[in-house]
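Data deposition worksheet. Section B asks for the primary sequence of the deposited chain exactly as it was used as input, without tags or linkers unless they were present during the calculation. Section C holds the resulting structure in token form. Section D is free text for depositor observations; keep each observation to a single sentence. Incomplete worksheets are returned to the depositor.
Section A, Depositor: J.P.
Section B:
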Amino acid sequence: MAASEHLLGRPTGSTLGMVMASTGVAVMGSFAFGVAIGYSAPTEAGIRQDLQLTLSQVRVQLHTQIGSSAKIFHSNPLSATVVLEVVLGFPSLFNDPQYSVFGSILTIGAMIGAVASGYIADVAGRKGAMRASALFCVVGWLAIFLAQSAASLDFGRFCTGFGVGVFSYVVPVFIAEIAPKALRGVLTALNQLLVCTGLSVTYIVGTMVSWRMLATAGLVPCIILIVGLFFIPESPRWLAKVGRQKEFEIALQRLRGKNADVFLEAEEIKEFIESIESLPKAGIQDLFSRSYICPVIIRVGLMVFQQFVGINGILFYASETFVSAGFPSGNLGTILMGCIQVKIMLPHPGAEVGILCEGGRSKKTSALNKIRGACTIKCRI
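Section C:
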């Protein structure tokens, strides 16, 4: 009976302890993701003053336009300009954009991390990928904390970007692979919730502490994650995929409870892995076949068009944007944005339900999901 319950995805209270603990550790990566996104907004004034960094003159003019008229905000090409600066990374088009580079270079590191995340997670394992990501973030935050020049800031920001780029893929995949079927969607949705929570907390705390102190706060979720990984099991599905049979059985037993009968679930996982491995190898070119070209265009198209609303510029430079819009201080507007972020996310916990176990329905679907991961990093930042 116990085996049937696990197979059907009906966990009992006594079997959820390790699953919840493992999820709690993993979503520290999601929280670190949110902290990295939100860091540049509340710290802009402090960093520019302490290190004498310059700001893109085009952005200064855009901020002035935003403050002078709401109609100008809608009619002028704010979104396209911010995309050029923040998303596409063309700082050479602007005048002395030192802080603008610092804000936007996170996305460059995140793109590289997102593209590499699948390979890293397959080779080093889900825990290994999360550990490597956390170490990249630790190096990045230390570089920012010790920074005395723009170069050090940019290096730190790039490292944190790479780390959160890997987190964006491996955290939801790890949670989906360890969760019972009945809880898979709910637990995976915690990934996006914690991203928003990290962003909101950073916005709020950043108005109360210095930029160097906020950088040390960014170390906290990374350290919790690194330590926590020593006490949770690896993904059983990954262990089965790489042929580590004994460790696979031990990890599954730890996740389902000491007294649980995991035989049927273990057989199901092994059959699933074997069926996936027996399918023909798929490549990027298969995404452009007649069967997949429409879903690819729709998914990637939505991601691309979403960027052209200019949300990156608002998130990265929220504090100074509110000042330019007429607020006496950027702190109030930044705090309000932080409070609204989590509130908006709470009614939509199914945002991440679509991310299933690694492999999906087929090799081609897996490839499509990896393209999705690389594009989704842009939407979240």
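Section D:
The chain has a mean pLDDT of 77.
The radius of gyration is 22 Å.
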